[in-house]
Amino acid sequence: MPVAAMTVLASLCLASAAAQEIPPPIGKVVPEGARLEKLFTRTAPIKGGLTEGPAVAPDGSIYFSDIPFGKDKGMILKFDPKTKKTTVFTNDSGKSNGLMFDAKGFLVACEGADSGGRCVSRWHVKTRKKRIIADRFMGKRFNSPNDLCIDRQGRIYFTDPRYVGPEPRELKYRAVYRINTDGSVVEVTHEVEKPNGIALSPDEKTLYLADTNNGTDRIDPDKPPPKQGAMKVYAFPLGKDGLVNGPRKTLVDFGDQAGCDGMTVDVEGNIYLSVRSLKRPGIMVINPEGKEIAFIPTGPSQPGAKKPFGIPSNCTFGIGPESNVLYITVDQSLYRIRLKIDGYHIPWEK
Fold it and tell me: CA–CA separation, 312 vs 216, rounded Å?
């Protein structure tokens, strides 16, 4: 959830999109004539921020975060593909960002900083009751849990950078952690500058990780602002224990452009990257070797824009009749597009 993208307003998106042409999607996974369909744009009286973290529920509904700036409370919203209506699941999300349903049908949320929960929590969607799964590593509070993925054993991998929020930092690293099924927390890697989007390959032998160091930081207000750092996507090999057992590989290097935010994978193991580059905003689809095989633009090329729009934050696939439908959070909106391939999800318990 890089700060530079959080200044976008939905009204600007609508007005600007009409004046600038967005290129059509291209690539092997995109059907001819496929186009993005807008499903929702924020109407709540909250300030700044963006939509984030789409996650599909066992009933096919899409839950996603709506994250404002500062003390305004964040929300989790629910889109129903059958009625095309969006409703409020909770109007106090703890500043949730990344979301994902576990195998038992509970909604797991990464709660960020900036007056948020700074924890990983689990929601019972029927009772709408929440409990904190983990908020510390070795007794120290997390920086700002951002995004997550869950393996078939139920272990939760999540990233812990810090993009916004004046809360004091307690942990030395911006790292990737895993919450085991017994509630214990282990560090997976801190070989990253600012970990953001995260995903597992379908065989769970590879961990994909976005390093999105946007050079903004409110943690040390008395120091000069840091410079932009790594904008890359890595692949880490995992051993049978689900921990890193070899050197990382760089799949994509975005150079001086904004890189990847959230990500997801399809059944063939291709990775869908939410790319925030102002030159080329959209969903970049790469194979496991890092070769681009498709691109779904979400906005026009707009280098140097002061108020950019059409900038994606995250994506996920639907299930059932929508197993090949990709949902994308963009600015303060939710979109979808039907593709030629199904998304991958861990199996749910019956």
Answer: 19
